[in-house]
Design goal:
The structure is a homodimer. Chain A has about 280 residues and is an alpha/beta fold. Chain A has one domain: Divalent-metal-dependent TIM barrel enzymes (TIM Barrel). Chain A is built from twelve helices and ten strands. Chain A has an eight-stranded parallel β-barrel, surrounded by six helices. In chain A, helix 7 links the parallel strand 5 and strand 6. The longest helix of chain A has 21 residues. Chain A is globular, with a radius of gyration of 17 Å. The interface between A and B is medium-sized, with 34 and 34 residues.
Chain lengths: ~280, ~280
């Protein structure tokens, strides 16, 4: 597939647009793929959303998100596993081959190393169910500033170790530029993920400064911040990854623009900064 | 030295207290060591500050800070080297054996990996001057959320590699709990730094949530956040590190307290959460 056709728009890059209009705007722009979010899909129901993306001829590069599997109590953990099975079902219905897993953070007093060590076993409980549904679970290392509240997995190197420790070849890793760009081991880790056939998603956004008051919203359009997309994209391409490249940009300025303009901006930056290196 | 006597108070933990009062309050509390900041020392002059700490019988565990060596122009780099030589002179005068190095961030368009690769050579230009002055340069990996604007060194493992690549045995590393607690390789990295005889400073503060609007100010008093001080301190002690443990806590609540109370709080948390593992 030509590089320019591999752009996928993550739904939260256009978060202020309702689900139905989001799908039709992406298709109208001639973009071929979307990344969806469970709560936004829920606004119109999974069945209807699946029908719309199919009718529009779009691929679904991923569904966000499963995870939050680090509850300290058995009850909390059981509830999380149940919710993740529902997320897998939804990914299956939507035709998304990848469910993004934000594994969860800490309760005060929990030791990060012990919580992290328990991840492979929990993922192993879900993996067969996902595999039956044709859905691959993609562990997402998040920026270390989210280690306490969102994801105890902070690096690609750690993510691939934990994926391997799950004992299931279908479990993989998300490479999200915003979360991992700072890592001195990032290029070796991307190569290792590729060698293990576990690179399931490549998401792009830039690291903008100053940090937004809610740091989740500091993600910038590629080219507006500090990330070297040449180096990262070249490393991803060298693994043989041939899936979609998902622009996942939580950014209040982008949300304030008419969707046709924001799609055009994201596409133009994708075409100049990312696609040439795929 | 007994563990309880190894507490050092970093000046910015009590940032609202003028330099002279800070020194006398720490000494009055029976605490034996301080970490000083150049700009606060400058308020009264290095000579006078050195006389005060000596008169009070205090050790100076470190001087903050040198660094900011990543300017993209030769002129900027030369100015930074000159400023670092002045910082080394000041550390020498103050009797601080360690100068903390915050190496600097990026200009937009600079590639983090190339900027990082240039660090050892720049440090090598300073190291002989520091060694002559009896001052060790301590590279401080900072939390990855500061990779773009403050320090392109984000992990202990990378810091020790860069210190070794400088070719000078006097160059070492700061282990600051706030910056490195999330790292899945942290315990191995601490051991490697110890084995290389490069562990020059152990600084403690907690990771509090929510992040403060200025994330530099999210540092918490030990026990108020998510960091496992048992694990980190045990790893530091296992290297044979026998220096001071510097409480470096930038926190508006702490700054609002009378200094005697904030010193008592920090000391009590140090004694219950850190000292038992030294």
């Amino acid at each position: 597939m030509a590089a320019q056709n591999r752009l996928s728009i993550n739904q939260w890059s256009m978060r202020t647009t309702p689900c139905e209009q989001f799908i039709s705007a992406v298709a109208a722009a001639g973009i071929e793929s979307v990344g969806l979010w469970r709560q936004n899909v829920a606004e119109i129901g999974v069945r209807r959303a699946a029908g719309l993306v199919r009718g529009a001829g779009l691929r679904v590069s991923s569904l966000c998100r499963g995870g939050f599997l680090t509850a300290p109590t058995p009850t909390g953990r059981r509830a999380a596993l149940d919710d993740n099975r529902r997320a897998i079902d939804e990914a299956h219905q939507l035709g998304a081959g990848v469910l993004v897993m934000v594994v969860g953070g800490l309760d005060p007093g929990q030791s990060i190393s012990r919580v992290r060590d328990a991840i492979p076993q929990t993922i192993a409980e879900l993996a067969p169910y996902a595999q039956d549904a044709g859905v691959r679970l993609a562990l997402e290392p998040m920026h270390p500033m989210f280690a306490a509240d969102r994801a105890v997995i902070s690096t690609l190197g750690n993510a691939v170790l934990l994926a391997e420790a799950s004992g299931h070849s279908s479990v993989g890793v998300v490479v999200d530029s915003y979360h991992i760009w700072w890592d001195p081991q990032v290029l070796d880790a991307i190569a290792a993920i590729g060698a293990a056939d576990r690179l399931l998603s490549y998401q792009v956004s830039d690291w903008n400064l100053p940090l937004a008051p809610d740091p989740l919203l500091s993600r910038g359009v590629m080219g507006d911040g500090y990330i070297d997309f040449t180096e990262l994209t070249t490393a991803v391409a060298a693994t043989g990854y041939c899936g979609d490249v998902e622009a996942e940009i939580f950014n209040a300025d982008l949300w304030a623009m008419p969707i046709a303009e924001s799609l055009a901006l994201v596409r133009s930056r994708y075409e100049s900064l990312v696609a040439p290196h795929l």
